[in-house]
Amino acid sequence: MRSSPGRWVSGKDFFDRKAELKILKRHIENHNHILLTGQRRMGKTSITQELGQ
Question: Is residue 44 domain-resident?
Fold first, then answer.
């Protein structure tokens, strides 16, 4: 996987986050608020982009 500052990963480059996506989707379906925090380049934007698809 190449580093590309300012862009999120998707498709085959987005992997190993199925459990996290499942948990986040459940919270959204239950109308809960979600706050994603973490250091830069940890995948916060990528996981929110995957949730939106």
Answer: yes
